[in-house]
Protein 1
Amino acid sequence: MPAMRTHRRSAVLLAVLCLAGSILSSQTPAKPLVVNDAALGNEAAGDNWLAFGRTYSEQRFSPLTQINESTIGRLSPEWVVELSGDRGLVSTPLVVDGVMYFVRGMNVVRAVNATTGAKLWEFDPEVRAAAGQMRAGWDHSRGIGFWNGKVYVATWDGRLIAIDARTGKEVWRAQTFEPGKPLYITGAPKIFKGKVLIGNGGTEHGASRGYVTAYDAETGKQAWRFFIVPGNPADGFENEAMRMAAKTWTGQWWLHGGGGNAWHGFTYDAELDTLYIGTGNGSPWNRKIRSPEGGDNLFLCSIVALNPDTGAYKWHYQTTPGETWDFNSNMDIILADLPIDGKPRKVILHAPKNGFFYVIDRTTGKLISAEPFTRTTWATRIDPDTGRPIEVEGARYERGVATVAPTPIGAHNWHAMSFNPKTGLAYYPAMHLQATFNDKGFDPKTWRATPFSIGYGVGGSFISGPSKPGTPMSSLQAWDPIKKQIAWEVPMDGVFHPGTMTTAGNLVFQGRNDGSLRAYTADAGKEVWRANLGLGISAPPVTYAVNGKQYVALLVGWGGAMAGLGGPVSSMHGWAYGVHKRMLVALALDGKAALPAQPPPTFPAPLQAEFTVDPKLVQAGAALYGERCTACHGPGGQSAGMAPDLRASFVVTQAEQFARVVRGGTRTARGMPMYADITDQELAALQHFLRRMADTALAQKPK
Ligand code: CA
């Protein structure tokens, strides 16, 4: 029986090899992984999660299968790290060789053992010191980067910092915008070919001209900078691309900055050696103000392809020409190879705010398809020949007022989209809302943005309800980019649900605003598992493996813009400021860790106070509040959790204490800006407005 003997012999040999392997792995550490282009481009290796989108494709697809649709019932918390003092946690942790790196509130980076959560080091870039001067109160970050033994974090106040991944010590830092400029960074640095790229946000906080900058990953020396919109022609153009772009602007756009800020959506395509940048909306939103005679306003709301070595322009595709609704294209740019009409094509998948799902040929920048994934009343369709939207008359609020779907918060925002090459589907949280724009009273001749104040150049109600009455405001969608249609869809309550991750185990993972983490079958969207983590989730999950054991991990900490600006649709969950524990949670099959006890959803009660409101001050207070306070404390003082609910605040009723906090900067360490120049009169106006809001809420409360 030679066959059997061979079999037995090879079995013995295999056992010896396995034994040698286990001795090797327990006694001699495996050669450390060098995170470079090869590692970042390796789709097949599943143990690590090396970059924001896992690999260069940005697919957030993991080949790991230990946790799959059959075993998922055994998924349970394996370890938990409480993160006291943090607010919104929205970022993607990275995992390299059994170590997890993640960014906390105030851009603090921590490294932990990925099998236990035990802290290895923590790096604090001390943005608290800058917080008093920063008046766009967003201390959250969507992630960090990793390259050749270093972790990279970009800070709220515009620094890019390289940290030694072993020691947690700073290696270099670069200042990416002038301190004091009304810009901020919430994005993850993008790393490719030994360069680190970062942009910034700020289109709503003053005149802003967006750009991205690439730095040498080893030294921090600036390699190149690409401006997204043209500056003042009198100053000369930086390059031919800006000269070309300037032809699509009118009036004196440079006085308003123009915008286009790239705060998210960076993808490096190693096959085509091209960098893609998703660009932002106009500054201000209202085109009538920034470019009064019209024009496409390049490169707003576009995917711009650049030479990764020089930053030179290659091509662009503009999703919303001449945008006037905050329909930016900063959303994820995923790379895939798809058969289109029987031919293999290298494509980009992109679901921006404007409600159309784009499939673009990444070799040419030409449109393959763009179909609506939600109700779109600003445009009926995208012309396949020109790639341009067929706009609906009146949608640009030419007549002063217009109700439009989707909205400035987007049919899809920054919440991570994933793509599963096995199912051929892309997964993302979609929002189905409409907004009312009203630019009556906005005079293009006199309107100017005030630095660090919110200014859109148009008024209105930017979440005025579901785009179809009686239907859910959000859903988890699986989009089929070949069939150009939704493959499956799960309705969700509220808005701003977090992003997704998908695996070869035929699973899609997604957290929710209600505090649940859920898993669905990737092919059919059947919910197969859920766990309640006790606090609204805003961050996407990742998966990785150490010593053959697969984990799913995510940050739990309700946050992002709608935890500030959201009003009723975001405060409905009861994640009141400072009440619930923020956490990093890792789950595995048969995990035995207990989650910390969480208070139930909490709704701050408006304060009864001896305070007589002077109606004459209320209006001035409302205007000031809208410009300076709404972004964090919520419209009308109704907080959705990013900052205290000021209708419930005792401090608001006490003039001296109120002045100490707002003007004196006593709470900058917690992210409250210092308004050193605010006058007594303005403070009083704010007090009277907020007390009016409290009284109104008290009067509406059921007796
Ligand atoms: Ca915007």
Protein 2
Amino acid sequence: MNLKIASFEEYKQVYQQSVEQPEQFWEGIADNFLWRKKWDKALEWNFKEPSIKWFQGAKLNITENCLDRHLEEKGDTPAIIWEPNDPNEDHRILTYKQLHDKVCQFANVLKNNGVKKGDRVCVYMPMVPELAIAVLACARLGAIHSVVFGGFSAQSIADRIIDAQCEVVITADGSYRGIKEVPLKSVIDDALVRCPSVKRVIVLTRSHTGVSMIKGRDVWWEDEVKKVETQGNPDCPAVEMDAEDMLFILYTSGSTGKPKGVVHTCGGYMVYTGYTFANVFQYEPGEVYFCTADIGWITGHSYIVYGPLSQGATTLMFEGIPTWPDAGRFWDIVQEYKVNILYTAPTAIRSLMSFGDDMLKGKDLSSLKKLGSVGEPINEEAWHWFDEKIGHGQCPIVDTWWQTETGGLMISPISNVTPTKPGYATLPLPGVQPILVDENGKEIIGNGVSGNLCIKFPWPGMLRTTYGDHERCRTTYFATYPDLYFTGDGCLRDEDGYYRITGRVDDVLNVSGHRIGTAEVENAINMHSSVVESAVVGYPHDIKGQGVYAFVVSPNKHESEELTRKDIMMTVSRIIGAIARPDKIQFVSGLPKTRSGKIMRRILRKIAEGETSNLGDTSTLLDPGVVEEIKSGAL
Ligand code: PRX
């Protein structure tokens, strides 16, 4: 079966077929990939345990799909174009042949350092080609990578390393983001104080800053590569994997204090990311595709590395930030590399929009053919700006709804196929069966309705478990509503059956497209020595989508209020990372609680949103007086 759908009529037919005969449908899609042995059974599943097995009995290695199978015809085609943080530094282009060789070489480095199938490897690196190489080298050996975003703190890294029991860490001396330099190795050193499982740290040279190198534990990437070169065997055969063997772990925030290690497996993830990439972006050979995400998040995993590479695409990787040296940076990149497909986030669009259209003057964006958005609901103003100023009204915008847990795109237009509507993720992709349910789990049928978004049938890219704690996977995603995967999102379905995601219905915030659990931030704030307790909620933020608003009880502040505020910010940066730092901290004498001691977040949310006129029923509060005080002190 063809990966790409050519018309809206065909979409409707294929969708229907994918619902009526899902196994057959996915087998047809999976036939487009390279398997060492095909599956015995397409699917076995139940959402009770849950147990989901796609393509059982099949053998493969995802890197043979991403690299080896392209060598004959596309060996000299660029696989990765890398644009450095500093526009004056040289860019790099790696062809499929070069990328293949580098992945094999680094896989041999990992082997020399004792890495084997099933081992967990933590990757904490800048957005340089070596990050993609490290990830693919792990996959080549069947080692399980756990990439941690470069903005997380030592404490967060340590938690993730301990949870996955990683033995090897791959990092760099430092990374650049705009004018800032992040001392990655030094952060790792702080993390490793708590991580006895780590036996080896491989350090790439990037920023040439001084770092400590511990004998017997730390080695330089470049030295290890030289060793492999002198050993003289450039190849590294890919390790044969079962379709359901783990490919990677990626930690994400939920409504409890501790991030979960979402687990994806080899076969289903490969098929799902490859299929959705080819179909949604309608990728044509020779096109240059630029996804602005970081590989530290799922978007980077699925749509910078695995999806595009499995399709032989040219994927552009950018090390820096959209606003440096100025807010025209994306457009310079589009112009320089004649980018055809641009996949970015609403927060980036809103931020660039705010600098005014002058930033677009003289930039040639005529190469652009397709645009994409991901990470949060896109507001209509940003959608229209993206459409008119960037796409010049000529490029379809795919507003792609999905999650770390779904592995790949779920509800999204198909470029040039699905009629779009601003703010709508539109229709489910083939093989995806969304339903809306009410609070009691009853299906809401018909159109012009809204409810909680669930998925009622498995798809190959879905998570299989949460690492080391399957029960947590069950209770988080499969226990809220029996026999359904619960997304945590609210959603409306309009008169045309089009889906619009309205945002999270649980205690998860979406700050600049990053998922942040309120409980996690509260835990971090509460670690500050003068804090008694706190409650964190989101509020609408012009650029970030949602901002973090913290109500903090701190009766004995150290020196001034302002200093305590700064100290709390610093504490959150240390515990989680700067991305979770509250935008607003309001000191309060108490929190609104019910008589049973539960914090009434509904009230706090309204106050944070500035909607203080109608707070609803406050009579069940232990101390209704506290609400007046909080209202009058709102920031
Ligand atoms: O609330 C939804 C929002 O981002 C959440 C998933 O976050 P994460 O796992 O970090 O993955 C982000 C990248 C896939 C979802 O539960 N979200 C993601 N895409 C959209 C969206 N909300 C609205 N529209 C989208 N296109």
Protein 3
Amino acid sequence: MRILVIEDEPQLARHVTSALTRHGHLASSRHDGAEGLQAALAETPDLIVLDLNLPSLDGLTILGRLQAAACPARVLILTARGDVEHRVKGLNAGADDYLTKPFSLDELVARVEALGRRGATPTAADLLKVSDLQMDVQRRRVMRAGRNVALSPREFDVLQVLMQEPGRVFSRTELCERVWQRDHEYDTRTVEIFITRLRKKVDSAFTSPLIHTIRSVGYTIRAAS
Ligand code: CA
């Protein structure tokens, strides 16, 4: 992918572009908001990594201008820890995903590549729904009761397998094979850890849990009956 990094901390920008380059992408960077916007419109990258706090033109303004120009690039925003308001504004302004600083370069590359798998137009099969839980497969986004649920790429993959067939019980082995395929580094214990993580993110704030354990069989997702 051709990736534009708009980040005013030169060292961070350099680390990000070199990590992306190592993974086979064509990455360049700008350290100023106005220059970044100009480059985004002129170079039409596939994806933009956009810091929100920038000199001369802030990230939210850039997002607005990109939307106005119908820029097709996917946008991953970078936000400061705890800056929930900006993150929400960014996602509402059309960003596809976000990362909170400080982040690991591995996580950044994973998010970028997950966004890269996104196709052009979502179809019905790309929008999964169980009760008030919604998954936009193409945009790799999950919402519960209208609120964004931030999942790691693998958490997302596990949830996607469950949501594709609500009510069907998946054994740990089957989930493991579906999500990790031939990667022997993972075992069924990993599945248990991921289910615990998903429960924390998807169910813990709600009175009716959607993810259910079927004793000695496995897991399923279904609306409360
Ligand atoms: Ca900044």
